[in-house]
């Protein structure tokens, strides 16, 4: 799976993240900083909303229903956002949607400050946040291949995962303290502030107009992207494996109830931080990922590892072991994410990148949203811990079956795949003209 060239770094340097994209691209640095800041704030809200719903309703099903109301906007606006990303200037689309998310955080803050906060705004604003975020994500994902060299895509994916995980660890950890001691309003206010700072970074990146070959946003353009995705069985494999992993094993909706059942209410913030913490450990030791070329195999193995780790967390009755296994699961999930992203960014043509990013958004977002509904429903039916361990085992089994049905994914090699070779040659030929 790795390249044994003598030029590969050794020892500690082999584990440290590859900073080549950071050094080579000023726009990468600005976009990375923007994401780091806004992700931190978003994770504050990610914890605050279910906690507020639990306080207002006391129902695991009501908390899980947040994922249900986010699902339809995610699907509709994710697909349309992909078409928009191919047809419009990506930077403008990112700026306006980032500002829109800040406005929604302000409305959450207003509701939290009411003498008697209402439940329905949480659902409405969650649905709107899903819509705006889904419009933005394809533009963001399709911009990275434009500002980072082809051969640096695995390193860029690892650095982006580091950006996400820093916010994912710090945000929930801080949110647990803020919500417990200062109140929900402070969490929402901090999220609003991060969006203001994030927009200031994004407006400074270079314009990124549509490719000449890009289609206008329409149902036909979306269908064209779907047909391309269907023709690429290795890409299709990354989508279905990730959906299975997140749908069956995502435990986040029941964490507030799991903490109560373990008589460790103090651990809730840590529980939310475990998955990002595991991902962070992988990110800061991600130098090895640039030397792995069997990306599809790594996606499958890591997704199965995620399921088994979640199952172990559900079985354990000791809170520290639960935190440990959730952290291990987060590490496996990040390995899968790095190699999925590398496959996407190294093989999809620029004129289709936005629409395929919209499909990718569904693959890594629909699963978690439905997973919240599944986890909440199973917790109400079978109990909280049974919901967690049964989902983890189902995930591992489903990924194993999918591996048997997806030989193109299992044999994918970035050095020899025809689409990766073609795109590499295309970008190499375009480089002198751009210079």
Structural write-up:
There is one protein chain. With 435 residues, the protein is mainly α. The protein has a single domain (19-434), classed as Growth Hormone, Chain: A (Up-down Bundle). 79% of the residues lie in helices and 0% in strands. The protein is built from 17 helices and no strands. Helix 3 runs parallel beside helix 5, helix 4 (90-113) runs antiparallel to helix 7 and helix 12 packs antiparallel against helix 15 (384-405). The two termini are 34 Å apart.
What is the element layout, followed by pairings?
Elements: H1 20-24, H2 26-57, H3 60-87, H4 90-113, H5 120-147, H6 153-181, H7 184-202, H8 219-231, H9 233-249, H10 255-261, H11 268-284, H12 295-315, H13 319-347, H14 353-382, H15 384-405, H16 407-410, H17 418-434
CATH class placement: Mainly Alpha
By DSSP (H or I, 4+ residues per run), the number of helices equals: 17
**Terminal Cα span:** 34 Å
% residues in beta strands: under 5%
Largest sheet: none
Share of helical residues: over 70%
Total strand count, please? 0
H and E order: HHHHHHHHHHHHHHHHH
Tell me, rounded to a whole number, the average pLDDT.
85
Rg over alpha carbons: 21 Å
The helix-and-strand class reads: mainly alpha
CATH homologous superfamily placement: MFS general substrate transporter like domains
CATH architecture: Up-down Bundle
Tally the structural domains: 1
Shape: globular
- Give me the CATH fold name: Growth Hormone, Chain: A
Sequence stretches where pLDDT stays below 50 over 5 or more residues: 2-6
